[in-house]
Amino acid sequence: MKLARPLFAAALLVSVLPACAPLVIGAIAAGTAVVATDRRTTGAQIDDEAIELRVSSALSAAFKANSSDFHISVNAFERKVLLTGEVPTEQAKAQAGEIATATQNVRTVVNEFAVAKPSTLGQRTNDTTVGTKVRAQFVSTKEIPFNSISIVTERGIVYLMGFVTQKEGEVAAYVASRVSGVKQVVKVFDYGTPEEVQRRRAGASQPPAPTTTPAPAAAPVSTRAPEASPAAVASPVATPGSAK
Length: 244
Known about the structure:
Blueprint: H1 4-16, H2 27-30, E1 31-32, H3 42-62, E2 71-77, E3 80-87, H4 90-101, E4 108-111, E5 114-115, H5 121-139, E6 149-154, E7 157-164, H6 166-177, E8 184-187, E9 190-191, H7 194-202, E10 221-223
Parallel strand pairs: 3-4, 3-5, 7-8, 7-9
Antiparallel strand pairs: 1-6, 2-3, 6-7, 8-10
């Protein structure tokens, strides 16, 4: 599976991306990708990769005339698309959101573009390092289903995607917020009951999308970390001084 997914993505990339593709920085470059085994079916994972490539291709074509003003990252999890990076104007941000929403098989869009100059290579390298450190903390925390959470990092802001229980999401956000270099944590999760999650884990029930209604695309949840580590995380958390 670890080999099949990259090969599929590479083949599809060649077929859909135009020559101006350097405009778009993909999911792996923007953060830390999900490892092969997660709560999605194999078909859902392939669908998400196809969506990322379709949206990336459409945005690349739309903004190719001013590509140097854009840094765009597209990530998808169970047909929910997260847009991150930098665009030059609010109009461009809105246009990008509309393009993503109209793309085949997209369920919903979370538009987190910053209206700013594109981040530097140094900043992106730092984001990759931060994402790797967050992933390492997830792996060592037994309450976190690290295989089922996608980590995307932009300008020190960590975005978390996946299908989790409320408690899993809160613990993951808390742990991420305590990692050095993390300025803010934004949860872009879909939530299910422990029973739904267990069915996913056991492979008895693997629907193409969560049965619960996701948070509105325009209002992702930002989290603030408490002063002291709680015995159990029961409310949203964020890094100090980073309220969103």
